[in-house]
Structure formats: C-alpha cells, structure tokens
Amino acid sequence: MTVESTAAARKPRRTSKRTSAAKKPQSSEPQLVQLLTPEGERVEHPDYSIDLSADELRGLYRDMVLTRRFDAEATALQRQGELGLWASLLGQEAAQIGSGRALRDDDYVFPTYREHGVAWCRGVDPTNLLGMFRGVNHGGWDPTTNNFHLYTIVIGSQTLHATGYAMGVAKDGADSAVIAYFGDGASSQGDVAESFTFSAVYNAPVVFFCQNNQWAISEPTERQTRVPLYQRAQGYGFPGVRVDGNDVLACLAVTRSALERARRGEGPTLVEAFTYRMGAHTTSDDPTKYRADDERAAWEAKDPILRVRTYLEKERLADEAFFTALETESETLGKRVREVVRAMPDPEPLSLFEHGYADGNSLVDEERAQFAAYQASFADSAEEGK
To answer: Rounded to whole angstroms, what are the CA distances from 356 to 111, 158, 359?
Structure first.
C-alpha cells in the first residue's frame, strides 16, 4: 500500500463529504440575466446595466399595461365570434416591450404572429393586427413604414428572412440591425438552424430573439432540447445569453447590447427570453389538457407587470393619479379596438387572388375566372327562383 492510499484510507468521512457535496442537486432556478426581481427589487449585473429615468420606467409600465389590455380585448372578440383566431401574448409583455424599446427606428423587425407588444413599440396601430385574424386582409400595414414585417404564420421561416435581410444591410454598409422573433418550438425547425449557419458565416447584423414560453403548443421545452436553448449558439460560433423574460429592464438591457454588437459588425447573437405563456397557444387550444394549474400559479408570482408596479410604488416613482389615468387610457383603447373590429368591411371575394405575384400568373388568372363563375352561379340561381 502506498503512502497516498494509506492516508486516504484513514480519512473516509472527509472523502465522503466531498463526494456528497459534489452530488448535491443544483437549484431548479435557471441562471439568467435579471435586473428586477419578481418582488420588485432592483439588482445589478456585472455585464448588463441600465439607467432609466422615472419617465422611462413609467413608459415601460404603460406599454405593458396597454399591450395586455389590447391582447385581452382581442381574446374576448374571438370568443364573441368577431375574430377567427387569436394568439395571445399574456405573460410575455416584458420580453416584447423590453426588446422592442431597445430598437432604433432604422432597425428592422421580423415577427412571428404573437409580437403584439413589439408592434406597439414600432408604432403599428394595434387594430391593424386584427384584420388577418378576422379574415379581411393579409396583414393590414405597410412593413416599410415602421420597419416591422408582416406577421409570419409559417413556423421559423422569418429567421431566414431576417438573416437574408441582415446580410443585405451589411452589404449596403448600413449600421442598422435586424431582429428576428421566434418561440422555443420554432427552435426545432430546420429554418432556424439554417439561419444560424448563414448568419454566423456571413457575420450578419441580426439578433435572434427566442421567447421561450416553455410550451410549443402542448410540447414542453424539455422535449425540444437537452441543453438550454441559448447554448445552441455556441455550436454556430456566436454568443448566446439567457435573460429573465419577465423582467422588462433586463430584456431591454440585453437586447440593446446585442443590437449594438450587431451594429459594430460583430455578428449575430441569440437571446433566450425565459418566460411563460400564461394563456392558450391560440384560442383554438386548451392548455388544461397538458399542463398543471400549479405551474401557471408559480409563474403568476413572477408577473412582469406586477413587479414593475411594485418597484414604481416602492420607489415612489408613480402616484395613484398615474395609475388611475392609465386605467382610463386602457378602457379607451379597449373600446376603440371593439369598435374598429366590428366596423371592418368584408373584402371583395375576388381580392383573394391579388398580391400573390407582382406581374401576374396564368394559373392564378385561371383560378380567379373559375371562382368568379362560381360566385356568379349563385346570382343566376337567385334569378331563376323568382
């Protein structure tokens, strides 16, 4: 027996303690960038800092409150039969408002179909978001007016669009940046993997903003990946960071940093906003079939709006008059949304065939003629019945 083995044999308890400590389970709380705790306490981070005025803090709170009210009104309108479908952002207000307010006017946004808060930050009239869900148009706004692309229903494809656009921005020599939004479910799509590859190889000035709301419809994140989503960026050669997606201050600071990095010509960044979808995936979904009530209750304690209000009140940065005025503004917004939606005119049936091709298409022309004849047959039948 050697000296070393003899010494080790004499101290079994000490060795056992070290082994026990090594196997101690880690905290279930993920490591993420946080600047405002769920209790409304300001904390510092060594890599991300932010200094906002009282007006700016109140502005972020107002953005989130009004966005949530708009979203709730749209959900109610769908339940009343005024919309065919709605994808709620409930619970994700901080991720969207924080990242949206980090953008410059000349930056370009590629959303999915749930970025109502980002649209608000870009100055898109919220009622314009509802036309597609009512079935009266294909979007309702000019993407070039606010540098906010039309909603993308195809899962993950917008990341490729954003990458190509960002490559063009770089070739033009502009110092603007591009941001692409997608969810944790879309991260499993091949389009997202391809966009990571192209953006890294071409050093494209793009930020990939993944809102990890824990559920890809009924599929939990743990069935999507074996590592935290932000770590995927390492394999493509660019940085990734996980941020508290319910912390509007952290989302603002992290996204601003990633956009500035892109503008400096340092390439893409993957931001994973760790958040939670409080409602259904869309109004056609029933989340009670696949997730427990206590899970939602745990996330309600991390509500993004409540923590900011707590901070504002604790630091005396907003008085009761501010909150009362905001409630009045919220009611006014809800009323306007209801009135605009119900007044939306039905489109001309043949307009279905417009805007597919810039220069027309013979097959589309043929289909239009067939549909026109089909529509006319109803008028002929009505005449014959007189």
So the answer is: 21, 18, 9
Q: Which of 290, 342, 355, 357 is catalytic?
A: 290
Whether 166 and 160 have beta carbons less than 8 Å apart is answered as: no
Q: For this structure, is 277 an active site residue? A: yes
Q: How many CB atoms lie within 10 A of CB 215?
A: 22
How is residue 94 written in tokens?
């901080």
Starting at the earlier edge strand, list the strands of the sheet with 240-244. Answer: 108-110, 178-183, 206-212, 269-274, 240-244
Among the options 62, 68, 256, 281, which is catalytic? 281
- Tell me how far apart the alpha carbons of residues 276 and 158 are, in angstroms, rounded to a whole number: 22
Instruction: Tell the burial category of 138 from Cβ atoms under 10 Å away from its Cβ (0-12, 13-18, 19+).
Output: middle
User: Please, what is the Cα angle at 56 between 275 and 317, to 5 degrees?
Assistant: 95
Amino acid letter, residue 241: V
Q: Is 281 noted as a catalytic residue in this protein?
A: yes
Task: Identify whether 290 is a catalytic site residue.
Answer: yes
Return the SS3 of 118: helix
Encoded amino acid at 278, one letter: M
Confidence of residue 264 (pLDDT cuts 50, 70, 90): very high
Q: pLDDT grade, residue 386 (50/70/90)?
A: low
Q: What pTM was computed for the model? A: 0.88
- Whole-number Å distance between alpha carbons of 11 and 110: 61
**Bigger pLDDT: 351 vs 315:** 315
Q: How many angstroms separate the Cα of 190 from the Cα of each of 159, 194, 268, 275?
A: 10, 6, 18, 23
